[in-house]
Amino acid sequence: MKVTRLDLDGAGSPMALVTKILKVETELRAPIPIEDLARQLDIEKIRALETEGFEGGLLTDENRQFGIILVNEGVTEGRRRFTIGHELAHFLIISHVPVTPGKFLCSRRDMLQWSEKETTRYARMEFEANEFAALILMPPPLLRKHIGGRAPNLADVEKISKDFIVSKDAAARAYSRCHHENIALAVAKDGKILRYYPGVNFPFITAPIGKPVPRGSVFHRSSLKQRVSSDIVQTTADNWIDVEYGQRAPDLYEQVYLQKNGFALILLWLERTEGEDEDFDPDENRTSKQRLQDRQARWSR
Ligand SMILES: [Zn+2]
Greater confidence, 298 or 221? Predict the structure, then answer.
């Protein structure tokens, strides 16, 4: 590797930093060697974090002369790598200032800070560190190539998690943002919605967080098997999104993947309507099953 901190000069946002790193390190491939990259960017050591209840930490000084990353070793490799990326961001983004001088300490909750609208400085900082970790571990150009022109499928989330060595949760979020189709992913735990990862154009999801998965969802079918992606089937759109009175409901498809420990991933795939077929709707006389088959054929070409 040849990138140095001088190459990153002036980059203050996660995306700008990752863009500058990729510009120098053109040979980077999945899985991204995050530890080597951290060392290349002046992290002296990566050590086990002994403080109970925290996921990661960074020891540094005000001018970032030195940096030591601390990481909770008792987690999966995917989460460990994400923590290293997150702490590396605190080191590289000079405007990040720890609560305790010289020492950042980040909890599991901090690592799930994904709201861009965060107003407190602390939450904003944690969001940026997560954004950087996700972008550097799954650089968008590599991820887009990995997804290719294929139709959305939860099997691909599993594959991204393996190939890029990231948690399924991190893979799910990146997948929904990077996919060319209009999709969102829901994470459920013990039958209740835990969080959503909507793609950039996905409409507001009305099923509330913390409440049970909507009754009409494929999630409730008894035929689902653990650790096998279900078929992709059409569902009633207003299980998940607002359908205006008097309007034709858009076609919404669902797929479910039951993980271990009561977790589940639910893919929501919304048919594109605007600009695609213009005045003429070739789907009009087909059944929803035929439409789905045609759509899948179109994307697997
Ligand atoms: Zn943090």
Answer: 221
Mean pLDDT of 263-286: 68
The fold adopted by the segment(s) 148-300 is: Beta-Lactamase (3.30.450)
Please give the distance, rounded to the nearest whole angstrom, from the Cα atom of residue 127 to the centre of ligand 1.
8
Give CA–CA dist 266/250, Å, rounded: 18
Looking at the DSSP bridge assignments, the partners of residue 254 are 233, 268
Give me ligand 1 centre to Cα 141, in Å: 25
Task: Say what the pLDDT of residue 115 is.
Answer: 79
Contact between 166 and 138 (Cβ < 8 Å) = yes
On the question of pLDDT at 151 being above 90, the answer is yes
94 CA → ligand 1 middle, Å: 13
**Rounded distance from Cα 291 to ligand 1 centre (Å):** 45
Q: pTM for this one? A: 0.88
Tell me, what's the pLDDT at 9?
A: 87
pLDDT above 50: residue 279: no
pLDDT of 144 strictly over 80: yes
Cα 208 to ligand 1 centroid, rounded to whole Å: 27
Both structure tokens of 69 = 């990353």
Q: Determine the distance from the C-alpha atom of residue 4 to the mean position of all C-alpha atoms in its chain, rounded to a whole number.
A: 27
Domain coordinates of the chain in residue numbers? Answer: 5-137, 148-300
Ligand 1 centre distance from Cα of residue 224 (Å): 37
Task: Provide CB contacts within 8 A for 66, sequence distance 6+.
Answer: 42, 44, 59, 60
Question: Architecture of 5-137 per CATH?
Answer: Orthogonal Bundle (1.10)
Percentage of the chain exceeding pLDDT 90: 75
Q: Give distance in angstroms: CA of 152 to centre of ligand 1.
A: 31
pLDDT attached to residue 30: 97
Distance 41 CA to ligand 1 centre (A): 18
* CATH fold match for the domains 5-137 and 148-300: no
CA distance 123 to 133: 15
